[in-house]
Amino acid sequence: MTIIRQEDFIKSIADGFQYISYYHPLDYIQALGKAYDREESPAAKDAIAQILTNSRMCAEGKRPLCQDTGIAVVFLKIGMNVQWDATMSVTDMVNEGVRRAYGNHDNPLRASILRDPAGKRTNTKDNTPAVVHYEIVEGDSVDVICAAKGGGSENKSKLVMLNPSDSIVDWVLKTLPTMGAGWCPPGILGIGIGGTPEKAMLLAKESLMDPVNIHDLIEKGPQNKVEELRLELFDKVNSLGIGAQGLGGLTTVVDVKILDYPTHAASLPVAMIPNCAATRHIHFHLNGAGPAILPVPNLDDWPDVAWKADTEKSKRINLDTLTPEEVASWQPGQTLLLNGKMFTGRDAAHQRIQQMIAKGEPLPVDFKNKIIYYVGPVDPVRDEAVGPAGPTTSTRMDKFTEMMLANTGLIGMIGKAERGPTAIEAIKKHQAAYLMAVGGAAYLVSKAIETAKVVGFADLGMEAIYEFEVKDMPVTVAVDSKGTSVHNTGPKEWQVKIGKIPVKIV
User: Is the separation of the CB atoms in 403 and 376 below 8 Å?
Assistant: First the structure.
């Protein structure tokens, strides 16, 4: 009989979530390095370079890979011969480990979890409770997987109840383009097949915890139907041309993972969950010998890629003297280096601004001829102006875009992924612009932020309005003042270049 002590278990959970906040799994980062070497799209190659550079910086500086440090997910397989030396329940021990990890003074992680999700949505302040999945198995040890899943990728999860004769491949290829780029590709696609609806979703999530090994499978060849399906989807998904950050390119996913389970004769549940560029999970075992000892990776194993601001290819922009005329001159796909002051704001700030405008109340800041950055940063440590501060998914702000452009004097926005038709129409109407920063490069982006201070809605925490002063912050013109979106044109262009799925560019 194995005895697992309470403090050993809590410390292992806390260490696990700290570890995955700054260390990519080596298999993923090496697969991304191979994708970088193969990539022919300049925009996608630049985005992958930023992600790889960010990964090394985070591993060296022990700071989060992404400002969205995720909802804590824990998979536990508990041996039937295990006995607990504990006064807390296992769930409470998991939550205490999460609490310690996210409140770590040397590397604080952003608390994103809200209680009362359909009501007041109040932040719990410590990122608890975790989502815990249990399985009781034979044996005398505890098998643990800690994973942190960001909202951008979680929000793109899909579930369908197909007819037994329907094609899973057709559904995936039809559905994936509708997910946009808010899940920050290149990533991993997890697919669950069978069981019941909730079982299929759990299978999809759990499949993402498996090693990246698609190229090994390509070399040895498929041995069963699931492996055949993995290979077919890997090839056809990448043939869609979505590419890194949705800009168009050769690699949309570095692997496709599938788990299946027996199902009812009348059913074919299929779930799809993507893992983003900030893929984060760690697998360890506890056998009563103390807390888990997590391996320190060798940074020599990281791809030798170092992104640097290119002043020859990118145009420097002074935000403090920015005019609508200058914004109107920007071209789709053009890369810019931003300098000067900008404001930040996410969902909660936009909603409050909308309410204040409706009531005729003065806003806390003047947005005239300014740019707003959709970001909720991690708290700073030591000499940092701000912690990791990558962009959040911009489509959540689409419904506020017309209001902001029409009423505040705002002339530009920064976020990640595409804008929807409503936002693009507002941008075109007001001759503004939408700029894209790379999701998955949060620490790299934060190094361009020289000062940061809260200037409005301080009670909203990470969703407050900040004023950032930036130096050479890299962005791409994703929607220009005429309404041209590179997230529409880029994938179509690369789908044609790849040439495996016929498509007509219109």
Answer: no
